[in-house]
Amino acid sequence: MDAALWAIGRGTGVVGLVALTLAVLLGIVTRSGRPLPGLPRFAITLVHRNLSLVACVFVLIHVVALFFDSFAQLTLLDFVVPFFGSFLPFWQGLGTVAVDLLIAVTVTALLRNRLGLRAFRLVHWLTYALWPIALAHAIGNGTDGTSPWFLWLAGISTLAVVAALSWRVSARFVEFRSVRTGETS
Amino acid sequence: MAARRFESTGSTGTLLHIDWTRCDGRGLCTELLGDQLDRDEWGYPLARVDSGSLEARDRSNVPIPADQQDAAADAVALCPVQALRLVPRP
Ligand code: SF4
After folding, report:
1. Residue B59: domain span
2. Phi/psi of residue B39, nearest 5 degrees
3. How many domains does chain B have?
4. What pLDDT shows up at residue A99?
5. Which residues from chain A sit within 8 angstroms of residue B43, using beta carbons?
6. Residue of A39, A176, A181 for testing the chain B interface, max B β-carbons within 10 Å
7. What pLDDT score was predicted for residue B52?
8. Which residues, 6 or more positions from A105, have their beta carbon under 8 angstroms from its beta carbon?
9. What are the DSSP calls for B11-77, one per residue?
């Protein structure tokens, strides 16, 4: 049983991180206001949202599986308060921070149309902290965290996110930028 | 997103109101409501002139046909800056 929980915990952690990475990338595309080949703008928004929810589901399974695993020795406290873990408390704590951020970002995103744009946007920016924290947690805490295939995955994901971010802050990011003037952010 | 298809395409009692102070011209609504909305040269949505707007020049209040109600509701929900509202037709 423990072996199964451990395997589930590992697998869902990796899949959750991949889903999160794709969600971040599509979130940046959403913000640009541009369509992708074969994917109109509203579809990008929907896929961004659904991938984020998929990531949440995998993270939930990840956390619950490891809660019942006897080696990880998680307590309920470790779900919300970081750095009290018994196994690699720092790296596990990063996972807890990531979960807290994920909850905040997801809840405010689901309530976006009721919360108002400013609150939503402020909290949503936390994703830029959430993603690297989740990645660091995976590398530092994961059973496979430092195995070559995972480091390759982490490297490619980082490259993709950094590339998307540089595009995000570049002048040509927003569609119609060239014909609009005086637009910020 | 499967918009239900009705036989009737007559306008209903709702208007899609575009709040110009908020709209960022991201173009989701123009994709979802291609028959009702056009994009100007800066990417902002405009009611199509032939869409039967109440007042001829009122291009920020778009009459929504019955078979586009779902699409309009989707557009309201998906607009990234909450610039759209469905309002009852006066
Ligand atoms: S979806 Fe919203 S921001 Fe985008 S063009 Fe339509 S009203 Fe403007």
Report:
1. 2-88
2. -110, 135
3. 1
4. 97
5. 33, 175-176, 180
6. A176
7. 57
8. A123, A124, A126, A127, A130
9. EEEEEEEE-TTT-----HHHHHTTTTEEE-TTS-EEE-GGG--SSTT-TTEEEEEGGGHHHHHHHHH
Best interface-test mutation with A: which of B22, B82, B84, B85 has the largest number of A CBs within 10 A?
Answer: B82
Per-residue tokens: A71: 């080696």
CA dihedral of residues A6, A9, A12, A18 (deg, nearest 10) = -100
Task: Give residue B27's region: left, alpha or beta (phi > 0; psi -120 to 50).
Answer: left
B82 interfacial to chain A (CB closer than 8 Å): yes
Give the 3-state secondary structure of residue A123: helix
Q: Give the pLDDT mean for A76-89.
A: 88
**CATH of residue B24:** 3.30.70.20
Q: Find, among A63, A57, A64, the residue nearest to A19 by Cα.
A: A57
Q: pTM score, two decimals?
A: 0.88
Structure tokens, A81: 């308060």
Residues framing ligand 1 (Cβ under 6 A):
B 18, 23-29, 45, 79-81, 83-84
Q: What is the pLDDT of residues B33-90, one digit of tens each?
A: 998 898 888 889 988 876 555 555 577 888 898 899 999 999 999 999 999 999 988 7
